[in-house]
Amino acid sequence: MRTYRWELRHVDRPERVAALQTALNDLPEALARCLVLRGIDTLDAARRFFRPALEHLHDPFLMQDMTAAAERVARAVRRRERVLVYGDYDVDGTSATALMTTFLRRQGLDVDYFIPNRFTDGYGLGRAGIDAAAEQGASLIIALDCGITATEEADYARARGLDLIICDHHTAHDALPRAVAVLDPKRPDCAYPFKELSGCGVGFKLAQATLTTLGRDPGEAMDLLDLVAVSIASDIVPVVGENRLLMQEGLRRLAERPRPGLRALAQQAGLDLAAVSTERIVFGLGPRINAAGRLGDAAEAVELLLTDDPARAAELAKKLEAINRQRRTIDLQTREEALKQAERHLSGRMRHALVLHQPDWHQGVIGIVASRVLEQYHRPTVMLCTVDGAAKGSARSIDGLNIFEALQACADLLTRFGGHAHAAGLSLPVENIPAFRDRLDDVVEAAMTPDMLIPTKAYDAGLHLADIDGRFWAVLRQFAPHGPGNLTPVFRGTNLRVAGEPRLVGADQRHLRFEVRQRGPEGDVCLPVIGFGLHRHLALLQQSRRQGHAFEMLFSINENTWRGRTTLQLQARDLRPADA
Question: If you ran DSSP here, which 8-state letter would residue 223 be given?
Fold first, then answer.
């Protein structure tokens, strides 16, 4: 059984916790600590955190090249030019494509879109889409969620007489593409205050700026925020600052006025959009949208997001559901093979990074499987297959190790790479794989500290069950929407005991359900607990119950609705004996 090191998240200035407690009318210490850990350490900051407003969005013209981009799109609108929207095949790219296509069609333009095929066109801005734009008589290409490293492709577009606007959010190389405008908050020369927009988020800012340039209200673009919310959740960008505000408004629109495609997809996933959250997008909507680009044609996902016809939406959603089921089957087989290969590599020598290669692995699932291997072995993982004689694949990394920077140190062995700190895509000659495996291992070893090799479970504060009252929950629920940078608060409970008989639940009997009790100042406090995937801890709870031994638990707090009745429950994250 894997064991984790429990780590209390560090507060640099503990005195700010007490000051915030006082400023917020004796807010419980655990909640004040959660706020300070998220950079909320003043009354004004707390007000903005708990009451975010759309007027707090940053001016899109603060982004480098935005004026040029908005003027070029506005010119296309005035002259009724033909435009091609070019997107990536993941959720961020398809939602960004749907957003920009919707926006431009509303302006009366003749707009088509192009999503590269993962298997024939490869990743990013490529010649096939540029050629398609030229053949369709387009004068402008707007590339979304890709293009920041496409210097040769930008030159090719210019040679074909096409203007190009790039809307990306990935890390830029030293040389930027020569285009009409390159919008990317991560550009070294970009002064935009928030650097972590999704690709769809950058497209949304361009839509706002274009409306302003046309003398219109930028608020007209707000009903596109449901697509931005889907992109933020699925692309695992930080849900802080501007992203948190965009996410909150996008979730509200998803709950109140979902577009037909997302409504149909939610029905296939058994997801109630009235209670939609970041997590439910990640596990419910995102994989089904992604499945189209992983195994088939991502353009079908764009069509789903664009259609206003409920019948067509239902048809496409059903098709994506079938593709997603097929994807799961391939995932499972690939995962089993990858784990066996990882065991062989780790048994040969101490590896700090895993580079796994199987020629016939499906290119569409190796990114997902790389994440599973990383979870199993807690090592940065690269999964590669062979496509047209070259090795292509995906990389995933652990917290604290920037995989994009690690790949930069191996750039002479690679044909192409791009991405960000936690995930990247790459290609290289097959014969370079052994040298790449050893080089990446050396780079990762040099960057790692010993503690990084041990998986941790971080928590925000200790908490007594007696402190979980109505006011506590009323404040805690306003921490949402959650995501990287604003994870669901996790608490540590000590001196806990089992009440009743713990049991395994779920179709595969992998989830743990029990009641926990703790002695409080006014007697025992009991609360229900669900532990997803924590079946391995059943023996610990059974022994605790038989022998009366205490245990400790890391947990979050949420609501559970059953047969029309909603109650608070704890969600266990990890358990261990009290003397661990």
Answer: G
Q: How far apart are CA 196 and CA 236, in angstroms?
A: 10
- Top CATH class of 330-453 equals alpha beta
**SS3 at position 250:** helix
Domain locations along the chain = 59-250, 330-453, 457-577
Residues 440/417, Cβ–Cβ less than 8 Å: no
Tell me the DSSP string of 280-334: HIIIIIHHHHHHHHHHS-THHHHHHHH---HHHHHHHHHHHHHHHHHHHHHHHHH
Q: How many CB atoms lie within 10 A of CB 213?
A: 20
- Grouping H, G, I as helix, E, B as strand and the rest as coil, residue 229 is helix
Which ranges of 160-240 would DSSP assign to H, the alpha helix?
Answer: 199-213, 225-234
- Yes or no: say if 479 and 489 are a contact pair by the CB < 8 Å rule: yes
pLDDT digits (tens, 9 = 90+) for 277-317: 999 999 999 999 999 988 888 999 999 999 999 999 999 99
Q: Domain 59-250 has what CATH class?
A: alpha beta
How does 325-335 read in b/e, with b if 16+ C-beta sit within 10 Å? eebeebbeebb
Residue 507 CB coordination number (10 Å): 6
- pLDDT per position as a tens digit, 29-70: 999 999 999 999 999 999 999 998 988 999 999 999 999 999
Q: What tokens does 61 get?
A: 């013209």
Measure the CA–CA gap between 542 and 523, rounded to whole angstroms.
23
Contact 273, 229 (CB under 8 A): no
